Each structure stands twice: as structure tokens, then as C-alpha cells.
């Protein structure tokens, strides 16, 4: 069989039928799009075994879209507590509320509409549409990129746009007309259980006889994941200071990086050290800061000469008031778009 010409999905599907993982979000047929959506958001940057109890607890509290849409943000965050990357929960909550209002509580079946929902990217949209609605849509994540790079002996950088496009096209060629969602899940499990990073378990792979990298003895050398030359990394702690529906913001100096643009209070440092630095910064303005000890999220911003690794917390002022200073202001959260945000700080507004 020539892998470049043949449709090999039946081999993968037979393997999946015998070896696929028993996961709580797979216990229904047909699949509930809401449950697919929740599981995929939870699985972003989080291991399956970590997600299991959170998923079960979530479904106990928010079994349906109307239940989640009606919940308060505090209720949502309490259920997410400990899972990390809290922006996922906030985005999911907001997107579900949009689905409730705009689509009558029915997750849209149109790719464009699904992708327009907050926090839903190409992969999540493909998973929802294929798993819940049986649509012939690819769901390409890191596991899939790795599998196809080995199967087809792809020596391009899988993190590059051309590399991703090439593999996505190959996945679309293999997607079966029947049960494309099952095919996508089979790839997920193959990548998690067999075609793992560094040392793939080739003897257990149903596609071993087809794998071009295995034939060439290159399965441990692929995929190629080239990253740009590393620049100095600065750990920065950002605190989003709230007062009701207002945020405390600061204008950067008139010269230098992101000159005169607006940002949330921040300082160099990580964890307790970083929070202490922000507290000291605000103390110079006569303000006393109380900050949460758990971050709401993180992001990385790469400049030509440095990288900011930013950890975001939330907090409030317990004492003191801002004086008549143009460079420090309270703004209404709803007016955030009126400010020229300093690069990554604009993304933080979506996080909180």
C-alpha cells in the first residue's frame, strides 16, 4: 500500500474501536455539542487525567447551555478553580451566553458561526462540528501534526504556516465520509497513546507498515519543530485592579517601547516577588493593593529584542485614591476599546 495514494483510515478506525480510551465526554451517541465544547476547552494545555474530575463536576453543576448561561461568573470560576488558565472559563461562559441569546441555546452548525464564538479556534471548531454534527471537518492539534509528519516523512517545520497547511490538507484527504469525528478522535488517541513525542511506540501502531518515517528509521527525528532564536525573557507580573466595573490603568512613558500607550499595573518579577513589586509601585501612588494569589491567565509577547512572559492576576485597592494624574486613571471596563493599549495588554482585556 502506498500511503501517498491509499485511503488508510479504516486501519486507524479498527484500531480505535479496539483500543480507544474510555472518557466521560464520549459516553453519548449522538454526541452533545455542548459537552464536546466543554471537554475540548478543558483539554487545552491540560492532561486528560487532570480534566476528568473537573469535567464531571462541571456537568453536575452546569449540565446544559441554559444552566451555564444563567450562572454567575463567580459560580463558573469556583467550578474551574484549580484547573488554571481561567480565561478559558470566562470565554466559555461568555460564548455560551451568546449561544443562548443568539442561537436559542443551540450550538451553531456553521463553521463560521462556531469560530466566531469567544475562545473557539480552528481545532475546537473542527472538533465540535465533526464529533457532534458529523461534519467532514479536520481537527488538527499537536498530536495530529506529529502523526502526519511521521507518516508522510514531512521534514518541514510543523509549527510554520506552510507546514500546518500541508498537514491539514493531508488530514482532509483521509477524513472518511462516514464518522469523521471518530476519525479525529482516533488520531487524538493514537497521538496520546502510541505516536508519542520523542520515542513513539511503533510496534503498537496500526499504521506502522505505512509510516514513511519508520521505514527510513527517522521516527524519532520527526516532527521538526523549529522555533525562532530565543530572545531574552522578562518575567512580568500584571495585576488587573478592579473597582466595581472600572479598571485602573497607566500610561507608559512617552519614549521607549510602546511609548505613551496604556497598560495595567505591572512590574518585573514572578509570583509573590512580582506581586510585591506591583504593590510597591502602587504604594508610590498612595494606594494599597490586595491581589489574588492565583493567576487568571498568562500570555507571551515577543518583540524583536525581548520576550515578555506575562502572568496576570486580579486585585483591588483597599486604601487610597488616585490623584489628579493624567497617566493614572480609572476607566469603565466597557470603554476599554477607546484606549490605545500597549500591545499584549489589549489581549488581557479579553482574559478578564
UniProtKB/TrEMBL annotation:
Pfam families according to UniProt: HhH-GPD, NUDIX_4
Reaction equations catalysed: Hydrolyzes free adenine bases from 7,8-dihydro-8-oxoguanine:adenine mismatched double-stranded DNA, leaving an apurinic site
SMART domains recorded: ENDO3c
Entry keywords, A to Z: 4Fe-4S, DNA damage, DNA repair, Glycosidase, Hydrolase, Iron, Iron-sulfur, Metal-binding
Keyword 4Fe-4S tagged: yes
Top-level EC class as recorded in UniProt: hydrolase
GO molecular-function terms, A-Z: purine-specific mismatch base pair DNA N-glycosylase activity
SUPFAM superfamilies: DNA-glycosylase, Nudix
Domain of life: Bacteria
Boundaries of every HhH-GPD domain copy: 42-193
InterPro entries in the record: A/G_AdeGlyc_MutY (IPR005760), DNA_glycosylase (IPR011257), HhH-GPD_domain (IPR003265), HhH_base_excis_C (IPR023170), MIG/MutY (IPR044298), MutY_C (IPR029119), NUDIX_hydrolase-like_dom_sf (IPR015797)
Free-text comment on the cofactor: Binds 1 [4Fe-4S] cluster.
EC number of this enzyme: 3.2.2.31
Signal peptide region: none
Cofactor needs: [4Fe-4S] cluster
CDD domains: ENDO3c, NUDIX_DNA_Glycosylase_C-MutY
Entry similarity comment: Belongs to the Nth/MutY family.
PANTHER family: ADENINE DNA GLYCOSYLASE
Function: Adenine glycosylase active on G-A mispairs.
Protein name, as recorded: Adenine DNA glycosylase
Amino acid at each position: 500500500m502506498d500511503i501517498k495514494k491509499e485511503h488508510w483510515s479504516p486501519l486507524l478506525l479498527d484500531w480505535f474501536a479496539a483500543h480507544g480510551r474510555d472518557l466521560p465526554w464520549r459516553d453519548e451517541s449522538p454526541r452533545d455539542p455542548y459537552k464536546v465544547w466543554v471537554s475540548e476547552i478543558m483539554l487545552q494545555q491540560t492532561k486528560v487525567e487532570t480534566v476528568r474530575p473537573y469535567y464531571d463536576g462541571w456537568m453536575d453543576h452546569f449540565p446544559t447551555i441554559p444552566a451555564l448561561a444563567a450562572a454567575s461568573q463567580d459560580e463558573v470560576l469556583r467550578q474551574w478553580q484549580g484547573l488554571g488558565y481561567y480565561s478559558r472559563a470566562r470565554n466559555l461562559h461568555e460564548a455560551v451566553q451568546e449561544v443562548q441569546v443568539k442561537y436559542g441555546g443551540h450550538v451553531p452548525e456553521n463553521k463560521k458561526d462556531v469560530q466566531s464564538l469567544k475562545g473557539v479556534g480552528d481545532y475546537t471548531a473542527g472538533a465540535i462540528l465533526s464529533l457532534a454534527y458529523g461534519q467532514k471537518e479536520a481537527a488538527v492539534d499537536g498530536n495530529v501534526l506529529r502523526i502526519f509528519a511521521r507518516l508522510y516523512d514531512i521534514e518541514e517545520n510543523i509549527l510554520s504556516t506552510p507546514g500546518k497547511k500541508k498537514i491539514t490538507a493531508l488530514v482532509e484527504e483521509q477524513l472518511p465520509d462516514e464518522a469523521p469525528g471518530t476519525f479525529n478522535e482516533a488520531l487524538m488517541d493514537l497521538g496520546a497513546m502510541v505516536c508519542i513525542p520523542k520515542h513513539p511506540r511503533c510496534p503498537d501502531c496500526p499504521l506502522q507498515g505505512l509510516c514513511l518515517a519508520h521505514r527510513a528509521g527517522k521516527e524519532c527525528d520527526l516532527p521538526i519543530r523549529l522555533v525562532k532564536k530565543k530572545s531574552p525573557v522578562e518575567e512580568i507580573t500584571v495585576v488587573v485592579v478592579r473597582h466595581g466595573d472600572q479598571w485602573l490603568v497607566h500610561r507608559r512613558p512617552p519614549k521607549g517601547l510602546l511609548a505613551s500607550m496604556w497598560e495595567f499595573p505591572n512590574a518585573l518579577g514572578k509570583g509573590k516577588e512580582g506581586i510585591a513589586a506591583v504593590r510597591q509601585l502602587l504604594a508610590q501612588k498612595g494606594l494599597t493593593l490586595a491581589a489574588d494569589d492565583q493567576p487568571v491567565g498568562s500570555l507571551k509577547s515577543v518583540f524583536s529584542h525581548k520576550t515578555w512572559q506575562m502572568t496576570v492576576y486580579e486585585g483591588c485597592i483597599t486604601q487610597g485614591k488616585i490623584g489628579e494624574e493624567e497617566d493614572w486613571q480609572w476607566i469603565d471596563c466597557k470603554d476599554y476599546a477607546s484606549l490605545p493599549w500597549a500591545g499584549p495588554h489589549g489581549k488581557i482585556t479579553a482574559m478578564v
